[in-house]
Design goal:
Elements lengths: L8 E5 L4 H12 L3 E6 L2 H5 L1 H4 L4 E4 L5 H15 L4 E4 L15 H28 L5 E6 L12 H21 L4 E8 L5 H14 L3 H8 L11 H11 L11 E4 L8
Parallel strand pairs: 1-2, 1-4, 2-3, 4-5, 5-6, 6-7
Helix pairs in contact: 1-9, 4-5, 5-6, 7-8
The structure holds nicotinamide-adenine-dinucleotide.
């Protein structure tokens, strides 16, 4: 299928690792032009091998001065902007609300939701100036943005916030032809989640498979989410094939029913 995104000018935050890198690679394969930012200098240095053709800026999305410089770099490298992927996010602290250090709360909120505002506010003038006829913003939320998530209140609060931010942006920007959608991943397969499952399995003295099936008990489709499925849905939402899809929160989570 031709997605029709050759030469689409795309900015991916946190694009040097994880879902962001896979998304950047998928855009590049489809012929898009990609600029990424990240806080990991080593991962940025590896982009030449991992995502040949991508340009990049060292930038923490929670720092507005760094974001301003990053946007300048992106516009110079891409020659304008058609699509923003607000992917950066961190797990934040684990603990009950009355145990969480306020500094940890603020860091999680600052990266997971204020970071999306920081990048969107400087991206919007460029999206409005685009003459590509296909402009959009895709914000990364989480399954934690549709359920309560005990012991992870800052992350859940931020990821629910992403949904309100997305739906509001979609309404504000519709008259400019700019679409805005959110993606809500479930547990994404990768080294990190496998080591979490392994650690819990050892602690409970059960097998890896038993621990994984307990973890996936709240999903209709009992599988970790392949990161490529997130890259693919993101690239599809950014394409003209999705020209009437806006203001939506799209779950890729095996039909999760609860995070309790
Ligand atoms: P990750 O932890 O693998 O990190 C990806 C990249 O983000 C890394 O290269 C890291 O250096 C960069 N990064 C971290 N903080 C940053 C900052 N302040 N500014 C710029 N870059 C920063 O993340 P991931 O698992 O690929 O998740 C991507 C998005 O998907 C996040 O918003 C996350 O909350 C969301 N999500 C992930 C999962 C999952 O299971 N992995 C589930 C639901 C939602």
């Amino acid at each position: 299928m031709d997605l029709g995104i050759k030469d689409l000018r795309v900015l991916v935050t946190a694009g040097a690792g994880g879902i962001g890198l896979q998304t950047a690679q998928t855009f590049l394969r489809e012929g898009a032009k990609v600029h990424v930012c990240d806080i990991d200098t080593e991962a940025l240095a590896n982009l030449g091998t991992n995502a040949p053709g991508a340009t990049s800026t060292l930038c923490d999305v929670s720092d507005r001065d760094q974001v301003a410089k990053m946007m300048d770099d992106a516009i110079k490298a891409l020659g304008g902007l058609d699509c923003l992927i607000n992917n950066a996010g961190i797990a934040g602290p684990t603990g009950r609300v009355d145990e969480i250090d306020p500094a940890d709360w603020e860091q999680c909120i600052n990266i997971c939701i204020t970071g999306q505002f920081n990048v969107a506010r400087v991206a919007i003038p460029h999206l409005k100036a685009s003459r590509s006829g296909n402009t959009s913003i895709i914000n990364y939320s989480s399954a934690a943005g549709k359920f309560g998530f005990p012991l992870r209140s800052p992350y859940a609060a931020a990821k629910w916030g992403v949904i309100g931010f997305t739906k509001t942006l979609a309404m504000e920007l519709g008259e400019n032809g700019i679409r805005c959608n959110a993606v809500q991943p479930g547990p994404v397969d990768g080294a990190r989640i496998r080591s979490v499952i392994d650690g819990k399995a050892r602690a409970l003295n059960i097998s890896f498979d038993e621990m994984q099936s307990r973890m996936l008990a709240n999903q209709s489709i009992k599988s970790l989410i392949p990161p490529q499925q997130l890259a693919d849905i993101t690239v599809y939402l950014a394409s003209p094939l999705a020209s009437t899809i806006s203001g939506q929160d799209i779950s890729v989570d095996g039909d999760m029913q609860s995070l309790a």
